[in-house]
Amino acid sequence: MNTTSQTSAKPLISPAILFAGTLFISAMLMFALQPMFGKLLLPLLGGTPAVWNTCMVFYQTVLFGGYLYAHWLTTRSGQQRQIQIHTALLIFSLFALPVALPADANPPTEGNPSFWLIWTLFLAIGLPFFVVSTTAPLLQKWFSHLGHHSSEDPYYLYAASNAGSLLALLSYPFLLEPNIGLANQRLFWSIGYGLLSILIIVCAITLWRSVSTDDTPEIVGEDVATPPMRQQLYWLALAFVPSSLLLGLTQYISTDIAAVPLLWILPLTLYLLSFILVFSKWADRIHPGMVALQPAVLLIFIAYSFINPAVLPYWLDLILHCLAFFLAIMVCHGELAKHRPHTQYLTRYYLVMSFAGMLGGLFNTFVAPFVFNAVYEYPIMIVAALLLRPGFFNGRWFLQPIFPGLLLITGFAIYLSTDSLFEYLDIIGGALILLAGLTYSVRHSPLGLGLLTAVILVFTLGLHSLASSTLYLQRTFFGVLSVRETVIADENQRSETVRELYHGTTKHGAERLTAANITTPLTYYSRPGPIGQLFTEFDAENQHWNIGAVGLGAGALACYSKEQQHWRFYEIDPLIVDVAKDPKWFHYLERCNPQADMVVGDARLSLAKEPDNSFDLLIMDAFSSDAVPTHLLTREAMQLYFSKLKDDGMLAFHITNRHLALKKVLADHAENLQLSGLLQEFNPNNPAPLVVATDWVVIAKQPQRLDRLRQSRLGHWQKLPLTFDLQPWTDDFTNIIGIWK
Question: From CA 20, how far away is CA 180, in angstroms rounded?
Answer without folding.
Answer: 27
